[in-house]
């Protein structure tokens, strides 16, 4: 099969999907309707309809970057653990993390690992504010506060009690980050990236002592949180857990804040909060980090390290996407932007390297 043939082949075969739904005992019969709803640039997402029922399906992209980048079984395990923990949250006063409810997983029913989850009806803030929120000047602050409060809640979950003892390797997690991501980058590196290499060297020389381990999302950002389609602003679910593990919670905070725009900043890579700007007061980076510190009790002395790390990791991930585009194994035209976008991410990282 040629590269162009692979791109033309359907990502979800209706007949194979129908057999999976039958085997899982899910309602309806006949061939399911499949609608691609992916708006990200990593795993593929589809809305499935059959017999009056609906589910959302997630599967890896056509050309996975690495075994850990698109591990559907691992993501389904995490969602299942959080779902069970949430069921006990009210009775036992435990943290409740809103998530899409997992339904079924298969390692090969559609030819690749995939899972089904319940659909959600909500709003996701991406490039622009949804009109409902844009009309409310209190919405930007409420959204920013919700982001931080949800992150605190994720990090407060007792991961051992949730059955995630074997989910990650927290010992040495922080010291493994630079070698891991540099090694991944080297597997698909096709060009010189001096700014990325400089950021890697700075991180290796400035790694602090790791914080007590928690569940970490791994890709925590504004467009991975869904909000209820009503006011006042209320979070509905945290999405896209493919990078979740057990590790240093400040990795999530640094990932979020590395691209957070303060007044006067030039947005890089879209800016973590760019959609909120111009619609009301938006908390600054220092204000949202202070909210996290106060609610979590964690020391943020080395927050700059985590911002550098987040941007460095993003540069490594995006270079993989650029390599896929250059090799003709991705049909996502956005990836052409990464020729200049990846070095820009690394330069942003070096702004925090003080």
From TrEMBL:
Transmembrane region(s): none
Pfam families with a match to the protein in the record: APH
Signal peptide from the UniProt entry: none
Residue intervals of the Aminoglycoside phosphotransferase domain: 33-277
Cross-referenced SUPFAM superfamilies: Protein kinase-like (PK-like)
InterPro entries named among the record's database cross-references: ACAD10-like, ACAD10_11_N, Aminoglycoside_PTrfase, Kinase-like_dom_sf
Protein name, as recorded: Unannotated protein
